[in-house]
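Morning run. Coffee first, then this:
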Amino acid sequence: MKRWTIGSVVVTVSVFGGQGVATAGTPHSTAVPPGSKESEVEVGAGYLSEDAARFGRYTGPVESGFFPILDFDWFLTLDEDDEDYNDARYGHLQGRDLGLDSRNVRGRYGIQGDYGVQLEYDERPLFQELDMRSPLSRDGRDRLRLPEVGDVDTVDQSSRSWDIDQKRQTVTLSAQKVVRESVKLNASFSREEKTGRRFQGYGDWTRAQGFQLPAPIDQRTDQLDLGFEYQGERFQGRMGYHLSAFSQLEEDFFVVDDPTSADWANPDQRTLSLAPDNTYHNIHAAGAYAVRPGTQVSGEIQVGRAEQDEDFIADDNFAGALSDLPDSLDARINTTRVNLRGAHRLTNRIRLRGSVFYNERDNRTRSFVVGGRETRPHGETRYGVEYDADFNLPGRNSLTLGYGYENVDRELGDRGKSEDWTFRARLRSRPTDNLSLGVRASHLIRAGGTRYDGSTLRGHLDTLHQYHLADLHRFDGAFHGSYAVSDALALGFELGARMDGYENSEYGLLYRDRYSATATLDYFPSADFSVHGFLTAETGKSEQRDASQTLDYKGDTVTLGGGFERAMTEDGRFHLGMDGLYMYSRTKAGLSVGQDHPTVSSGLAQIEVFGRYQARENLEWRLAYMVQAARERDWALGSGPGDGPDGYILMGQEPLDYTAHLLMGSVNYRF
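And here it is:
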C-alpha cells in the first residue's frame, strides 16, 4: 500500500538544495516489474497559508491559497476471451502531482519480449525568490528598460516586482525493439525547454559600482540516443550514439539599461551575452566477458566532439576589442574516454579487481589576444589505474585494500601537471549476531604544484602558490556500526572525518577539516507500529589567506529528526503518523585585520501529521498537515534597491523568515 505524506508533495530540504541537470532518458525495457497491477486515482485539495518560495522550491506549492491534488495509475487489463490475452501485452498510464508545477505524465505500451514504447511529459520548477524589486521592466524578450523619469536617488519609487523562478518542461519519447532474445534496439529523444528569470550582476571592478538584474532564461536542449544491445551467456555488450543540441529560443544576448546611470532618460546600455548555441556528439561502446567462473573483464570507450561556431556579440562599448577577433570563436573540443576493468576470484577468500583509464579533453579552439590579454582554451589528459583486493577473514570479518594513481596533464591550465596517489582500506566485522562494525580510511597525496618563487605576495600573483595549485594531503575516514538490541529495536552510528592540508599554500585556502557524527534508531515491534529517529552533527573549520590578512572559518550544523506510524484501530483500517525535523547551521568568520564578520545562521523546524482511513477495501481517505518555520541571519543579504553600499543597486533579497502551514486532504480509489 502506498504511504502518502506531505513529503511526497514538498521536498523540505529544498530550502538548502541545488539545481539539477536534465539528460535524455534511457529507453525502458519491455519487461514489466512485478507488483500490483491495480489501477487507482487520487483526488483532493490542499491549502498553503502564505507565499514562501523556498517551501516547495522544486516539487511543491509556493504561493498561498488552494491547489488541486490529482494522481492516477491506470493499467491495461484484458479479458480472458480477448484475442490478445496471451501475448504478454501491457499498458500503463501514470500521472503525478498534476495540480502542481512539478507535474509528470508517463505512458508505456508494448508486448513483453517484443517491443515497448514510452511517452513522458515532465515539469520541474525552481523557485528562488518571489516579489523582488528592480527599477528595470521588460520590453520584449531581449530588453530590460529603465523608466524615463527618475534616477539613482529614486530607485525605490521607480521599482516594480519580479519573481525569480525557472521552469523546465521536458517531453521524452523512447522505444525498445527485441530483434531476438539476445539482441535489442533502443531509441530515445527528449526536448527540454527552460524559461524564467535568474539573478545576474553587472559591475565595474575598477570602482565599487554595479547592479543586480533579473536576467531572462529562454532556451532549449534536444537529446537523441540510439543504441544496440547484445546479451549472451558469456558476453554482453552495447554500443550507441548520443547527440545533445543546445539553443537559445531567441537571441543569445540581451540589452539592459544601467540603473547606475545619472540620467535615466538617456541611460548607458549594457549588452550581456547568454550561452551560445552548441552541439555535442558522442559514440560509445561497452562490453563484459566472463572468461571463466570467477573471472570477468569489461571495458568501455567513448569518443565525442563538442562544437560551437556562433558569432561574437556585437557591443559598441567593446568595438575596439571585438575588431581583434574573427566573426566566430569556432570552438571545438574532442573528448576520449577509455576504461578497462577486470575481476578475478583468486581463492574462495580472496578476490582481486583492477582497472585502467584514459580520459582526454582535446581543446581545438583557437587562442586570441584581445586588449593585451590572451584567451586560454583549457584542455587536459588524465590517465591512471585502480587496484583493490577483498579478503574474507576468519570470524565473519572482511578486509578491502586499495590503491589508485592518476596523472593529469593540463593544457594552458594554471597548475600544469599533477599526480595523485590514493591509499584506502575498509574493514568490516560482525563479532556477534547482533553487532556489526566497520571502519574505512583513505589517504590522498597530490603533488606537482607550481612553486612560489617570489619575495612578495603582490608582485608574483601569476606564480604564487595558491591553494588550487598547491600540493595536497587529504585524509578521509569513518567508523560505523549497528546493534540489534532485540528483534524490534536497532541502533546505528557513524563517526567521520575529512582533513585537507595544502602544502606551501600562501594564497587562498591553507587547510580545511570536517568532522561528523550520526546516530539512528529504528523500532518496529509489529507490522502496525514503527518508530524511527536520527541525529547528525557536523563541524568544520578552515583557514584562508590573501595578500594582507587571514580568515579563520568555523561552521556547525545539527539535524534532528524522527517520527512514527501506528494503526489506531484493531482492524488496522485507521493509521496515524507524525514526522518531525529540526536543522540548524551556524558559520563564524574571524579576520586577522579589522573587525570579524557577523555570525551567519539558519534554522528550519518542521512538524508533519498524517493519517489514512480504509473506508472500504478499494477506498481510502487521506489527510495531512504540516507546519514549517525557517529563520536566517545573513549580513550579506537584506540590502534593497538603493540601500546597498557604494552605489550597488540590488533586488532586495532578504534572509529567510517565514512560518507556513500546509493542509491537504484526498480520497484514493482503486479499481
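The CA atoms of residues 590 and 596 lie 5 Å apart. Good start to the day.
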